[in-house]
């Protein structure tokens, strides 16, 4: 019998809603044909796909990163403003396509306004200059009688957009990046960008460009940018056709967050920096089957992928004192939870945990003790897409658990990913304080086969099953089925 012990007094941190954020890049059918399709009978007067908006709304997306991704390192934002028919069509080098610039800053801001989502803009530190970056801040946030603020007014938006979050470039360490930099060169360049962007609007929050969280790049960049940044970004993509390699890979998130947190703490102490530097996991997902640019990265997800996504979310919740923003890469069609055609859409398996966590998990993370079967994975067994073997991070608990409560401790949400492929786990759930559970609700994501996939033909192969929890007084015992996500929502008196 497994055991989950919960002590409501042991609070780890408050969950920032921004961990349920998203990301849209000018890549494949993410924007054009995804969130934006002018002239479609499914779109509104702005060209926004209404069916997509409805699906996005149910995800309670608090924040959206744009316009890239690799795309941003060749993007000149001024190409995307003003009359649409005069915007240049540009050769796009990150994904070897043509960018029509029909969707630009004002369209993105309108989307965020209509959807009540906080915008997060990443600036071009590849081919872009610091003057372009700071004038983008002025265009969005300027209130004075200045050229860029006036241009925004002329383009139909008298009020400033007040974009708070700005990223200092994307993956500038990568050989695939336009304008790749060494860590030292990135620090030099980013300092100047940061300086002029903050001079333009001191209220903005800056996100430094991180790698995985455990590399030399991360050490150098955190040390070099700590006085100037409010967030440090990390990226992680995992995935494998091997069930255990896939569902256990998000252990890398715990490793990354703990390593990176240690570096940030050390740098803040050594440099006596008093402002906090939080982690923004601003790209993360399962991504491995459709890797080539030709396939436009239109990944199809199965139940095992949904369990991996659940474990990513568990790691963010577990480290809620450190990670204050996370952006699933991406939102529609491209490695995404929502998949469209010209006629409609279906929800991928990974959509369901994303919606459930945003909807059901509460504001405070509680520490939790879990005693259960351990799973091991050897480097030989592991078949992962990248070079980071997770075998050394094991053994892994079969039950990956997080617990959250509301500030008063009356509402509890317990998220349990049972990663065991074969075995159900009957579990005692114990509370440190005597408390009576007066109501309980169960949300379960599962299917008979972990390779079950949703599609236009079978949109409901993997969905959320919801039912009332049957309570029988005393301690709670619950059986978590093999290869499933369960969220237990409890009301306590
Ligand atoms: O999300 C797809 C790509 O993955 C992004 O453009 C890039 O930042 C990362 O390598």
UniProtKB/TrEMBL annotation:
Keywords of the record: Carbohydrate metabolism, Glycosidase, Hydrolase
InterPro entries on file: Alpha-L-AF_C, ASD1_cat, GH, Glyco_hydro_b
EC number of the protein: 3.2.1.55
Residues in Alpha-L-arabinofuranosidase C-terminal domain copies: 282-484
Reactions the enzyme catalyzes: Hydrolysis of terminal non-reducing alpha-L-arabinofuranoside residues in alpha-L-arabinosides
Enzyme class: hydrolase
Subunit organization: Homohexamer; trimer of dimers.
Protein family: Belongs to the glycosyl hydrolase 51 family.
Protein name: non-reducing end alpha-L-arabinofuranosidase
Organism: Dictyobacter formicarum
């Amino acid at each position: 019998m497994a055991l989950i012990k919960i002590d409501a007094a042991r609070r780890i941190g408050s969950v920032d809603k921004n961990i349920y954020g998203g990301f849209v890049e000018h890549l494949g059918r993410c924007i054009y044909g995804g969130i934006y399709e002018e002239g479609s009978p499914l779109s509104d007067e702005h060209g926004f796909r209404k069916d997509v908006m409805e699906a996005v709304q149910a995800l309670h997306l608090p924040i959206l990163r744009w316009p890239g991704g690799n795309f941003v390192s060749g993007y000149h934002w001024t190409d995307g403003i003003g009359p649409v028919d005069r915007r240049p069509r540009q050769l796009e080098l990150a994904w070897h396509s043509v960018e029509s610039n029909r969707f630009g800053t004002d369209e993105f801001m309108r989307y965020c306004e209509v959807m009540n989502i906080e915008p997060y803009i990443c600036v071009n530190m590849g081919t872009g200059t610091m003057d372009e970056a700071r004038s983008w801040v002025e265009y969005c946030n300027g209130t004075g009688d200045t050229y860029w603020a006036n241009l925004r007014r002329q383009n139909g938006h008298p009020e400033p957009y007040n974009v708070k979050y700005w990223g200092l470039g994307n993956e500038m360490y990568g050989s695939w990046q336009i304008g790749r930099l060494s860590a030292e060169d990135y620090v030099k360049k980013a300092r100047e960008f940061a300086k002029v962007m903050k001079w333009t609007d001191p209220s903005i929050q800056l996100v430094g460009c991180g790698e995985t969280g455990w590399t030399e790049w991360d050490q150098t960049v955190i040390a070099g940018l700590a006085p100037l940044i409010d967030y440090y970004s990390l990226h992680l993509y995992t995935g494998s056709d091997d069930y255990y390699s896939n569902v256990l890979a998000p252990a890398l998130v715990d490793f990354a967050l703990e390593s990176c947190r240690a570096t940030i703490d050390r740098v803040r102490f050594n440099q006596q920096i008093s402002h906090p530097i939080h982690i923004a996991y601003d790209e993360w997902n399962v991504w491995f089957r459709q890797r080539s640019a030709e396939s436009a990265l239109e990944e199809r997800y199965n139940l095992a992928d949904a369990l991996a996504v659940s474990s990513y979310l568990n790691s963010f919740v577990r480290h809620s004192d450190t990670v204050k923003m996370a952006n699933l890469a991406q939102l529609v069609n491209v490695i995404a939870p929502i998949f469209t055609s010209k006629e409609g859409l279906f929800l991928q398996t990974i959509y369901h945990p994303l919606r459930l966590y945003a909807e059901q998990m509460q504001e405070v993370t509680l520490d939790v003790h879990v005693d259960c079967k351990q799973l091991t994975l050897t480097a030989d067994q592991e078949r992962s897409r990248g070079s980071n073997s997770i075998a050394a991070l094991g053994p892994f608990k079969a039950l990956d658990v997080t617990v959250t409560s509301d500030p008063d401790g009356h509402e509890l949400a317990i998220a349990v990913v049972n990663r065991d492929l074969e075995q159900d786990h009957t579990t005692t759930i114990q509370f440190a304080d005597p408390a009576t559970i007066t109501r309980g609700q169960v949300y379960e994501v599962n299917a008979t086969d972990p390779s079950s996939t949703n599609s236009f033909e079978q949109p409901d192969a993997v969905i959320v099953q919801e039912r009332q929890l049957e309570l029988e007084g005393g301690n709670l015992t619950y059986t978590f089925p093999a290869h499933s996500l369960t969220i237990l929502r409890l009301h306590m008196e």
